[in-house]
Design brief:
By secondary structure, this protein is mainly β. Helices cover about 0% and strands about 40% of the residues. The chain is built from one helix and 22 strands. The strands form six sheets. The chain has a five-stranded mixed sheet, with no helix packed on it. It has a four-stranded antiparallel sheet with strand order 4-5-6-7, with no helix packed on it. A four-stranded antiparallel sheet has the order 15-16-17-19, with no helix packed on it. This is WD repeat-containing protein 73.
């Protein structure tokens, strides 16, 4: 199987071959260059499995590409003169994808219309200021008509839920419980939907913890503070000095309450959770 990563020194991608189960060798096999990659931030990436696996990648709105992983054939090149920095990219299905700019604007695009300019739409209902991350809840197989909720998270702790069919309106708006002195960096903000649990979200990137929230009818759109139903502090307790910043987390695709998280000190933890009582 193949693994795709992005990283230094520019916004190009690396493709790795993962060995069979009886070996722990991961070997670099190729690289996917990016247009005007020199001096650009690391590319944001999303993959889609199909007859030929694709990777959606880019660091700015005007550098978006879709590349076939195995052949490195270019499938799609975005048409845009806007160099707005991206914070997240996601496939919605085999024909469409969604981009989130660092300032919170969203851009919905169709792979079948490469000449249509990519335009980032401002979000009038979003609080101004801060940087924004995005997570998309993918519909289960066989339910293509199910609306796909979008979750946006700001560096100030605002969490907004939207319908992909009408991103200008907020379905819910709350404020996450963030530390009084959060990390000075915003590049590791992460929000993700649980694939096997209803209305559950993971939030990280503010400190050494991962918070689990469950969307409730009482959330509304007033920006009130939401209570997490679980807080993972494994990276805090494992730190010898200052707690390491959680840089990423992801949900297990089949085990509903299992997550994996990594931190800046190189720690990698697999854990599950139960809802707090009281």
């Amino acid at each position: 199987s193949l693994l795709v990563t992005s990283g230094p020194p520019d916004s190009s991608l690396q493709v790795w071959q993962v060995s069979a189960e009886d070996s722990d060798v991961i070997k670099a096999v190729s690289a996917i260059p990016a247009a005007n990659s020199t001096g650009q931030p690391w590319a944001k990436i999303a993959t889609m499995s199909g007859r030929a696996p694709w990777v959606l990648h880019g660091s700015n709105l005007n550098s978006i590409r879709i590349t076939e992983v195995e052949s490195r054939k270019n499938v799609y090149t975005g048409a845009s003169t806007n160099n707005e920095e991206l914070s997240a990219v996601a496939f919605l299905d085999s024909n469409s994808f969604l981009l989130c700019c660092a300032q919170g604007q969203l851009c919905l695009a169709d792979v079948r219309q490469p000449r249509l300019p990519l335009e980032a739409s401002s979000i009038p209902s979003a609080p101004s200021g801060g940087c924004w991350a995005m997570g998309v809840q993918h519909s289960p197989p066989g339910s293509a008509s199910t609306p796909q909720p979008i979750a946006q998270l700001s560096s100030e702790g605002h969490l907004i839920l939207r319908d992909v069919r009408k991103t200008s309106e907020a379905l819910a708006w709350v404020r996450c419980r963030v530390p009084s002195a959060p990390s000075s960096t915003t590049e590791f903000l992460c929000i993700s939907w649980a694939p096997a649990l209803e209305n559950c979200l993971g939030v990280s990137g503010f400190d050494g913890t991962v918070h689990v929230y469950q969307q409730r009818q009482s959330w509304g759109s007033s920006g009130r503070e939401a209570e997490p139903i679980f807080v993972h502090k494994g990276h805090v307790f494992g730190a010898g000095g200052d707690p390491a910043l959680v840089t990423i987390h992801t949900w297990h695709p089949q085990k509903p309450r299992a997550l994996l998280s990594a931190a800046g000190d190189g720690s990698l933890q697999v854990w599950d959770w139960v809802e707090s009582c009281g």
